[in-house]
Amino acid sequence: MLYHHQIWGTLASVGIAIGMASGVQATEMSVDHSNSTTQFRTIEQPLGLKVAVTLGGLTLIGVELWWFLFNKSKGQQAESIQGIQELTITVDGGYNPATVVVKVGQLVRLNFLRRDPNSCLEKVLLPDFHIMRELPLNQVTAVEFTPEKPGRYPFTCGMNMFRGVVEVQG
């Protein structure tokens, strides 16, 4: 950990030194003040343009808040067939569905169908269940486990870039 701090400290020092050197160069440059004025001029914009820019900004803020805070996909309940909770998850630019809802104490079978050739999605990891499976392209790979207690258990791709959750309910 100390090694990381040394690296970041060195990078910060180099950045400060470069910033100071460029500041010195900027102050040493000669500036022709003969054509400059000492007052700022205001530029009037039409009221409609001001309102449009404000509304556009507020709309973008609203979309961002919705996307990151309120756009939580509901989990899909696994279907119970002969005592096995089963669900197919399509792997294509992520996991669909990304949240799987199952019951505690029953065998779960997640069928991963990989459609995306991205090398990141070649594996699926369920660390809480000590499971790692290769996902061949355009084939279904079954992953089975039995959750012993309620909770939220993540599953990820091999590079931890794409994520999903198994939500175990009591």
Mind sketching the topology for me?
Elements: H1 2-28, H2 47-70, E1 76-77, E2 79-81, E3 84-91, E4 95-96, E5 99-103, E6 107-114, E7 123-126, E8 131-134, E9 140-145, E10 151-157, E11 163-169
Parallel strand pairs: 1-5, 3-6, 5-11
Antiparallel strand pairs: 2-3, 3-4, 6-9, 7-8, 7-10, 10-11
What this model shows, in words?
The structure is a single chain. By secondary structure, this protein is an alpha/beta fold. It is 30% helix and 33% strand. The protein contains two helices and eleven strands. It has helices at 2-28, 47-70, and strands spanning 76-77, 79-81, 84-91, 95-96, 99-103, 107-114, 123-126, 131-134, 140-145, 151-157, 163-169. Strands 1-5-11-10-7-8 form a six-stranded mixed β-sheet, with no helix packed on it. Strands 2, 3, 4, 6 and 9 form a five-stranded mixed β-sheet that branches. A hairpin with a 2-residue loop joins strand 2 and strand 3 (84-91). The longest helix is centred in the first third of the chain and has 27 residues, at 2-28. The chain is elongated.
Concise overview:
This protein has 170 residues and is α/β, with parallel strands linked by helices. The chain is 30% helix and 33% strand.
Rounded to an integer in angstroms, the radius of gyration calculated over CA atoms is 28 Å
Low-confidence stretches: none
Mean pLDDT comes to 84
Please state the overall shape, judged from the principal axes of the Cα atoms. Answer: elongated
